[in-house]
Amino acid sequence: MKKNDYIVATCVDYTHDGQGIVKVDGFPVFVKNMLFNENAKIKIIKVLKNYAVGRMIELYQESVYRHEPKCPIFKQCGGCHLQHLSLEGQQVFKTKRVRDTMERIGHCNVEVLPCIMMDDPWYYRNKVQVPVGMQAGKMVSGFYKQHSNDIVPMDICYIQNEESNHLVNRTRELLEKFHETAYDKVSHQGNIKHILVKYGYTTHEMMLVFITYKKKIKNIKTIVQTLVQEFPHLKTIVQNINNRHDNVILGDEIEILYGPGYIEDILLGNKYRISTKSFYQINPIQVEKLYQKAIEYAQLQQSDQVIDAYCGIGTISLSLAKYVDHVYGVEIVEQAIIDAKANAKRNDIKNVDFVCQDAGEFMVEFAKKNNHIDVVMVDPPRKGCSQVFLDQLLTLKPNRVVYISCDVATQARDIAYLQEHGYLVDVCQPVDMFPHSHHIENIVRLSYQKNID
Predict the structure, then answer these.
(1) How buried is residue 349: exposed, middle or buried, by Cβ count under 10 Å (0-12/13-18/19+)?
(2) Would you say residue 409 lies in a domain?
(3) Are the beta carbons of 386 and 417 closer than 8 angstroms?
(4) Are residues 109 and 173 located together in one domain of the fold?
(5) CATH, residue 92
(6) pLDDT in tens, 348-403
């Protein structure tokens, strides 16, 4: 097989990111936008040592799950990966991916429950971060084409909330009206880098952030006055100044142009303050389902002592506090802990202690004190749990561990280790937090088997 060869083949599986896999004499070829069981004519565009990459030229046999993408720039944009796959097909893909990963990496044969899908999987994102550029002398906003710095112009993103779409477009119009220019990564000329909007799904409050290279924005007072008049839900406008030349989006310098500099939203009955740099779940509708399932699987009792590791701004800790005696929320990011403590005070929740410390180090100290713990909730970053954390978890031996993850592979790796040391996986529930993308959140419950050690 060599570049520019043509083959006719049938898709036999998917990669982790939803590309179709065909095999030629056992050699895998990855084909974007090809679905399981489809047969097509494919052009080979790259051949590497262990796999090749192909482009579908003509489709001969179509999958029952093939779906016409809603977005006209789906293929160019790359922000969504699976719009060509029906919701039923996406559920099958995501459930199977978790099952395969649990078997291959986690070495467990737990029943993987069908992925919990979103009832209305459009306009769900509460945060839109849109790069700005100049094309033919005109300011455009959109998303980067995959593997490039080229912006695909976009007026409507079907996974961003609708009001944020309108606010981004109107902001771009006003910036162009007053002859403001977009920052150029090569020449380092121009000013506007990104337009960022955050939206409270329950409160409907909106935050607009201008991310700029320079400290001044032309006619900014007029722009702010116009936007505040036209968008009644717009509660605050902020300028974030970032004069770096790398791909880091937010800088350190912030100026509040209008309002308090934050918005608020409500999640499972608790109110949270969201600032420019605050982490807040992208899909609050699905995250409520995620947290409710995690709390259900934890089988909490009123007398329980719980550790919420990698707790962020405390959304899980505060959601489960009313079910237990005490919660310890642990997070290494100082600003997140400051926000978490403020959120606890705002909601008058007093049985949670938030600690700014590495989760593994916290577990070491906690174990040394011979403290008893009933349940550990863990929602680590994509790289999974540290070895120190896992070892101290085994020292503490909580009855139940509820492990939430945005990366099933690292989750399965950690599960394999815990299974070798007395834990049994008895629940596995994927949740579709990011419809039309290949990303998955997964909940696993591990129960300690006292007769195994």
Answers:
(1) middle
(2) yes
(3) no
(4) no
(5) 3.40.50.150
(6) 999 999 999 988 888 888 888 877 899 999 999 999 999 989 998 998 899 999 99
Sequence letter at residue 41: K
List pLDDT tens digits, range 247-265. 899 999 999 999 999 999 9
Q: In this predicted structure, what is the pLDDT of residue 265? A: 95
Tokens matching residue 122: 């459009």
356, exposed or middle or buried, with CB in 10 Å at 0-12, 13-18, 19+?
A: middle
**Which residues are registered as beta bridge partners of 81?**
none
- Structure confidence by residue, pLDDT tens digits, 101-138: 999 999 998 999 999 999 999 999 999 999 999 999 89
What digits encode the pLDDT tens for the residues 388-418?
899 989 988 999 999 999 999 999 999 999 9
- Which contiguous run of DSSP H or E holds residue 174? helix 162-177
What total of structural domains would you count in the chain? Answer: 3
**247 and 357 inside one domain:** no
| Residue 71 annotated as catalytic | no
The single residue of 11, 108, 356, 406 carrying the catalytic annotation is 406
Q: Which amino acid is at 300?
A: L
Same domain, 144 and 202: yes
**SS3 category, 280:** coil
CA 183, CA 273: separation in Å to the nearest integer?
30
What number is the average pLDDT over the span 19-23? 96
Could you list the residue range(s) of the whole structural domain that residue 37 is in? Answer: 6-63
Q: In this structure, are 306 and 436 located in the same domain?
A: yes
Q: Which residue has the tokens 């482009």?
A: 55
Element containing residue 331 per DSSP (H, E): strand 326-331
Q: State the DSSP string of 346-375.
A: HTT--SEEEEES-HHHHHHHHHHTT---SE
Domain end marker among 255, 275, 295: 275
Exposed e or buried b for every residue in 307-342, given b needs 16+ CB within 10 A? bbbbbbbbbbbbbbbebbebbbbbbbeeebbebbbe
